[in-house]
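User: My collaborator and I are trying to settle a disagreement about how two of our proteins should look. Neither of us wants to argue from intuition anymore, so we agreed to look at predicted structures for both before our next call. Could you fold the first one, then the second, and keep them clearly separated?

Assistant: That sounds like a sensible way to settle it. I'll keep them separate. The first protein:
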Amino acid sequence: MNATYQSDGAVLSLRETGAGLPVVFLHPTPLDGGYWQPLVHNLTGVHAFVPDLRGHGRSELGSLPVGAFAAVPDAPALTMRQIASDILTLLDHLKVPKAVFAGCSIGGYVLLELWLQAPERMRGLAFICSKPQPDAPANIVRRTATIDKVRTAGGAEAVREIMQAQIKSLTGNTAQTVNPAIVTELCSQATLTPEAMIAVQAGLGARPDSLPTVATITVPVLAIAGGEDSGITRADMEVFRSVPGGCGFHLIPDAGHFAAYEQPEKVAALISAWVRQFED
């Protein structure tokens, strides 16, 4: 079932499927909620809520403040705080007081912000190809260059080229060999406008160091790393092993950054086994 809800002046989109334990899935950028469809198809006993994050898919970007990204201070920024606020609004809209959450990449960054804002609404956190560390200086330089390219080149074509290059570089070699169409499939889920691309890059660059947050997580955590992930390493994710709530850590050697799409059966099996602890 597809639906919409409103948050801070924007109309946002939601996919809802299944029945059972409420689980909220937060997708990576520049993709939309369709990223989770193959995985959700392999889950049972789960009531899956899959929003399109603000500015992605069918969700509006809305009006965003400027100044959060110091490297480009005049850029509007889609911050992790804003997305987390949208997700809390979604929970209220759905009348779901508490849920399990799963996030990939930016989705995982949002989970860390959600833990700061409303830990009482989180039963467990699954991080798939995500990390708590802030952007390294080299990433800040790349994000600044991306914003400059979008502003200089202008138009949707420049953004499409950037997204296609990002997706290809982050998709695992194994997945591209086994399924040569996978990059095209993923690119079909990437529909950011130039304005959204700038806001997302600024928001990612402005995200805080969440390593101190990891030390405060008292609910169970699942961490899944991709052995072929060129963006987030196993070492980056090993930090989750230290959470006070306990962490189940898994490495999928033949998966890249989009592990849940590249290897949906494997990731679904890990999630299915992990969520059994939350069954009433």
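The second protein, kept apart from the first:
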Amino acid sequence: MQFIATFLQKHRETAVVGVLVLVSLTLLLLPEGPRFGLAQRVLNVLLLPVSRGTHFVDDYVEMRDENRRLKRIAATLMLENDRLRQYRDERDHMRRLAAFKEEQLFHLVPAEVIGRNLDRFQTILVIDRGSEAGVEERMPVLSYQGYVGRVHRVFANSSWVRLICSKNNPVSCIDKRSRVVGILEWRERRLFDLTSVSVVEDVQMGDTLLTSGFGGVVPKGFPVAVVTKVSAARDGVSLKIEARSEIPFRSLEEVFVMTDEVPWDRALLYDRGDTVIVDSILRGSQ
């Protein structure tokens, strides 16, 4: 074996030529069927490194381009976040000068729906978060689409949530566009009526209704429904306003319980370590 290795090392070119000649003669002497099969296997062995190298180069180029795009996106988001924080600081300063209440962020506890009540309206949800997770009665419950209800009863590891699509559970709402305030009352399925709105008020089809925050129980600014029809009521002094919620109450699987309000200075979405990482990304994208 040592002799063969030494010979191949000293006469590499001659050995390669000899192997190629031997393979060529073998292919010429074989019948046509086995000949093509052997030739295909030889080509596969010879071309496999080339194929792998080509795929590696293609993958490297694709990953490099994707990495550059992600760096640009991260840099853009970082700059946008800094600009939004500046606007927030300016707005908070103006609110303090006007003696307005300082706005807060919300601490949301995610919960899964593990049950529903048995009536045909399904107005009660059972979630897998209770007093051990800090949940208390009357706490607002939200979904990805907006406000869905309040905590009705609390147990150690579960709670009942009363949805807004139930009788005698009105919600004070404000028109996002015109800032008109009314009381949203459930009618059927995902349909609601906005009451207590004067005929001279400005409410139009397509307007989004948000929680008004009046009463201090339901937080302000969460979407509830969209106005679908506006007409004059029979009394002649108020509007008959119909609205539809975009929240799929009967198919909710995840909700969020708002357990606390967090000041802006304690609600940073990233820490110093993240800032260092983003700074390195910014330098790398230049």
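Some points you might bring to the call about the second protein. Residues 266-278 have pLDDT under 50 and may be disordered. The first strand starts at residue 104 and ends at 116.
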